[in-house]
Design goal:
This protein has 349 residues and is of the alpha/beta class. The chain has 11 helices and 8 strands. The protein has 2 domains: 194 residues, 3-Layer(aba) Sandwich (Rossmann fold); 145 residues, Rossmann fold, CATH 3.40.50. Bound molecules: coproporphyrin III and fe (ii) ion. This is Coproporphyrin III ferrochelatase.
Length: 349
C-alpha cells in the first residue's frame, strides 16, 4: 500500500459547557449567522450539558474501522481531526507529520457533494497542510459514498427497523431528512456545466435507493437544521412544518430517516428526537426515527472498502448514475469551480 495512514476528518463538537460558544464561533465565523441563532443553538447544546455526542461517535467508529482494517490485514494507523473542535485537523496533521506520515488517505464523515458536505472538507485539508508548511503529508480524500450499497443497505435496514417499531399497520409515512443549505449553495453544487443542485439531487437519489431497499412505497425528502438569516432562502420544507402538513393530510405516523448524516450527533438528537418527535406527539402521530449508519458493522466495512477500492484502482461500487466524485489530492476541488462557496451576507461590501 502506498499510504502510511488514514485521516478521519469530521465536523467536531463541544465536549463541555465552556466549549459551546467558542465551538459555535468556529463554525460560523464569517458566515452571516445571526447572533440570535447562535444563542438558540447554544441552548440545544446546553440541554445535553454542553456535550455533543459527535466526538465519541467518531471515536467509536474509528475503533470499528481499526478492527476491520486489522481483520483484513491492512496496516494503516487511523488519525482523527476535526474542522471546528478538538482534535483540530491542523494539530492532527502536524502530529501525522511528526510521526513520519508522508502520504495519507482521508475519510470525510459526509456522504455527499456540495460546499458544506464536500468542498469545505477540501478546504480543511488545504488549511491544515498550509498551517504545517514544508513536510506536511500528501492527503488524498476518498470519494462520496451516498450511493454505496453498504451505506444504502445499512440505512435501509434502519428504516425497516423503525417501521417495525411502530407496528405493522400504522401506515407510517417515510420522511428522509438532510441538513438544509442556502438554495444558492445547492444551486452552485457540482462541477460547472453539470446543471448544479448536486447536493439535493444526491440526497433525493439516496432517499430513492434507501426507500427501494427498505421496501417502502411513498416517501418525502425534507430538510432540517436551517441556519442563516431569515431573508436568505434555504432548502425547504423543514421537517417540523412537514409533519404538520402530513398531519393535515390525515397521515397518522411518520418514520424519519436522517439520510443526510452518518451519526446521531446533535443535529439528529435535538432537531429530530426532540423537536420533530415533540411535534408529532402534540399532533397525536406515531413517530420513529431510523438509526444512522455509524453503529452498523457495514459502516466500518464501507470505509475499508473505500480504502481498498482506491488503492487497487478498482471500479467504484455504487448504485446511482452520478459520477463518483470527491476524491482529490491536497484539498483540490473536483473541478475548477466545483461546489464553490457562495458569497455570504456578512462578507458583502
Ligand atoms: C450540509 C451540512 C452538513 C452535513 C455534512 C456533514 O456532516 O459535514 C452539516 C453537518 C453538521 N452541522 C453541525 C453543526 C452545525 N452546523 C451549523 C451551521 C451550518 N451547517 C450547514 C450545513 C451542513 N452541516 C450550513 C450551510 C450551516 C450555516 C453556516 C455555514 O455556512 O457553515 C452550525 C451553526 C449553528 C447553526 O446555525 O445551526 C452548527 C452548530 C454538525 C455537528 C453537530 C454536533 O455538534 O453534534 C454536523 C455534523
Ligand atoms: Fe451544520
Amino acid at each position: 500500500m502506498n499510504y502510511d495512514a488514514l485521516l478521519w476528518l469530521s465536523f467536531g463538537g463541544p465536549e463541555g459547557p465552556d466549549d459551546v460558544m467558542p465551538f459555535l464561533e468556529n463554525v460560523t465565523r464569517g458566515r452571516g449567522v445571526p447572533r440570535e441563532r447562535l444563542e438558540e443553538v447554544a441552548e440545544h447544546y446546553r440541554h445535553f450539558g454542553g456535550v455533543s455526542p459527535i466526538n465519541r461517535l467518531n471515536r467509536e467508529a474509528i475503533a470499528a474501522v481499526e478492527k476491520e482494517l486489522a481483520a483484513q490485514g491492512i496496516a494503516l494507523p487511523v488519525y482523527f481531526g476535526n474542522r471546528n473542535w478538538e482534535p483540530m485537523v491542523e494539530d492532527t496533521v502536524a502530529r501525522m507529520a511528526a510521526d513520519g506520515v508522508r502520504r495519507a488517505l482521508v475519510f470525510p464523515t459526509s456522504a455527499y457533494g456540495g460546499y458544506s458536505a464536500c468542498r469545505q472538507y477540501d478546504e480543511d485539508i488545504e488549511r491544515a497542510r498550509a498551517a504545517h508548511g514544508e513536510g506536511a503529508p500528501e492527503l488524498v480524500k476518498l470519494r462520496q459514498f451516498f450511493d454505496h450499497p453498504l451505506f444504502v443497505g445499512a440505512v435501509a435496514d434502519a428504516v425497516r427497523a423503525a417501521h417495525a417499531e411502530l407496528g405493522q399497520d400504522t401506515g407510517a409515512r417515510t420522511v428522509f431528512t438532510a441538513h438544509s443549505v442556502p438554495t444558492s449553495a445547492d444551486a452552485a453544487s457540482g462541477p460547472p456545466g453539470s446543471g448544479g443542485h448536486r447536493y439535493s439531487r444526491q440526497v433525493a437519489e439516496a432517499a430513492r435507493l434507501v426507500a427501494a431497499g427498505a421496501g417502502v412505497d411513498g416517501y418525502d425528502v425534507v430538510w432540517q437544521s436551517r441556519s442563516g438569516p431569515p431573508q436568505v432562502p434555504w432548502l425547504e420544507p423543514d421537517i417540523v412544518d412537514h409533519i404538520d402538513a402530513l398531519h393535515a393530510d390525515g397521515v397518522r405516523a411518520v418514520v424519519v430517516c436522517p439520510v443526510g448524516f452518518v451519526s446521531d450527533h446533535l443535529e439528529v438528537i435535538w432537531d429530530l428526537d426532540n423537536e420533530a418527535a415533540d411535534r408529532a406527539r402534540e399532533l397525536g402521530m406515531g413517530f420513529a426515527r431510523a438509526a444512522t449508519p455509524n453503529g452498523d458493522p457495514r459502516f466500518a466495512e464501507l470505509v475499508v472498502e473505500l480504502v481498498t477500492e482506491h488503492t487497487a484502482g478498482a471500479p467504484a461500487r455504487k448504485l446511482s448514475d452520478f459520477p463518483a466524485a470527491g476524491c482529490t489530492v491536497n484539498g483540490a476541488p473536483c473541478a475548477v469551480g466545483c461546489c464553490e462557496p457562495v458569497r455570504r451576507p456578512s462578507r458583502a461590501g
